[in-house]
Amino acid sequence: MRHHWLLVGACGWVLLILIFISKFINFSIRMPDDYVGRTVFGWAMPAVRRINLHSAQQPDKAASEPFIVSSVYPSILEPKDWQSVNEKRLELLSTVCRNSSFWNITHSTVHRFVLDRIFVCDKHKILFCQTPKVGNTQWKKVLLVLNGKFSKVETIPENLVHDHERNGLPRLSSMTDTEINRRLNSYFKFFIVRDPFERLISAFKDKFVKNPRFEPWYKHDIAPAIIWKYRKNHSDDGESVGLRFEDFVRYLGDEPGRHHLDRKFGDHVIHWLKYTDLCAPCDISYNVVGHHETLERDAPYILKAAGIANLVSYPNIPPGITQYNRTKVEHYFTGIGKRDVRHLYALYRGDFSLFGYPRPDFLLD
Length: 365
Known about the structure:
Elements: H1 2-29, E1 35-36, E2 39-40, E3 43-44, E4 48-49, H2 83-98, H3 103-106, H4 112-116, E5 118-121, E6 126-129, H5 136-146, H6 158-161, H7 177-186, E7 188-193, H8 196-210, H9 216-230, H10 238-241, H11 245-253, H12 259-265, H13 275-279, E8 288-291, H14 295-305, H15 326-333, H16 338-354, H17 361-364
Parallel strand pairs: 6-7, 7-8
Antiparallel strand pairs: 1-4, 2-3, 5-6
Helix pairs in contact: 9-11, 11-16
Protein name: Carbohydrate sulfotransferase
Keywords: Carbohydrate metabolism, Glycoprotein, Golgi apparatus, Membrane, Signal-anchor, Transferase, Transmembrane, Transmembrane helix
EC number: 2.8.2.-
């Protein structure tokens, strides 16, 4: 009997010991629900973060590789360093420039006309090529501040920015060949681009519809000449109706038939010339190509890359104002024949390809 009770007592102690050990083990390996990564009993547990499914709709590609934001259809994903975006843009530019099938529509001689478009800031070794209808006014204000003319961009009068006789901004064309080559080979160089068709719409509105700078020659000289040659129905009085976007598209697409008109129009045609004709991007090695559609990110990056971020700031950009507007493009091209649109695209195909803008299938097909 005595042995029986000893056996029961021993079993009881064993049971108590097992219960105690079980509780100890459970306590030791209990981890926080959101993160597992501690060392338990000398074993390294793999670090696994649990992700809330509601906040994981998009994988974080930027963590493993730079994600390139399309300038036309911006993604919610952005790279940690905007430099990767610029590098991809320059890589694309170089690739298209080397493509022999694009050679005739992407290369341009670096002659006086191109050098006339490039503004110089010797103090900070910067060259800026002007491409109209992409926010050039603000960049010229930045250069005026850097040249010491003004202390802030906000204090610069608009009329002075466009008065190249008075604003004191030197152009590359005013220098000797030796001085030009030295600057092209050593200065920081940049320019801005925009979807080619949306840029044409902006030029048309600015010069032939609103004309805020009171440049009467666009409405009184250029518009009537285009209407006379390219309007299909002359029953309307050109002066009273004014230039239509359809007339403008037909004029631009008439390559090379319109060249005799362009010679009459002179430098006024810069507002709708191709980027290749304005800045020779395949023949001048630029450091940065900014995009109007992502200017909120491009402007700070350009200032930093040029080493002037602590000296001047780019004027505030209202959110969304520079983004591509497909609805507006569709509206302006409504009623314009496919043939005319295809001729227009053929003219600007080089600009679309060089800077990664997608072919506007919704207008062409």
